[in-house]
Specification:
- Helices cover 35% and strands 21% of the residues.
- Helix 5 (135-140) links the parallel strand 8 (127-129) and strand 9 (146-148).
- A 7-stranded mixed β-sheet has the order 5-2-1-6-7-11-10, with helices on both faces. Strands 3-4 form a two-stranded antiparallel ribbon.
- The chain has helices spanning 15-32, 83-87, 91-101, 113-120, 135-140, 167-179, 182-191, and strands spanning 3-8, 41-47, 53-54, 60-61, 65-66, 75-78, 106-110, 127-129, 146-148, 153-156, 159-162.
- It is an alpha/beta fold and 204 residues long.
Length: 204
Amino acid sequence: MTSTIGILIFDDAEELDFVGPYEVFTMINEVFQRGDKERPHEVLLVAEHDTPVRCAKGMVVVPHTTIDKCPKLDVLLIPGGQGTRREVKNEALLSWISKTSTSCQWVTSVCTGALLLTAAGPARAKRVTTHWGFVEQLRARNEASEVLERVRYVRDGNVVTAAGVSAGIDMALWLTGQIHSPAVARNVQRAMEYDPSPPYAAEV
């Protein structure tokens, strides 16, 4: 049975926040190598409108579907980026997130996408994380029960929030292990050659 994963995109979304998890979730289809048989995942980029979305660093992306036409989702992922500061005031989008999340097996975010999950309701009164530069702002909203820092991702029930940008890959791999198995997640990680060894250690 194919599960449907929806990744919300909007203007000024941070590219790697959604492209990283997209790579993980679509790589699973290759790892399973089912040929013409049913694929494990259908991964959809979902936007409010059907026009191209201009992301934070200039990447232009065409969504697969819109919030009005989106099918029932098993997993919802909300990326971050400067666009979240605008979209947190978008009542139509917040309403869609709230409604859609009620039937999802997993509801997730990367970076400041946690802002939309707490504002819309799915992550309200839950433990979350976000980009280190946004921790205090999210805490000040008093919507989450706790905003953790210095962690890559946090699970509270079926809500999983990841810290900034690259942490979304870690979260998506962990989620792959939960949906399928750790062995499948390891195979996806190997197929992606995801074995981080950054040349410089950043101060944190």
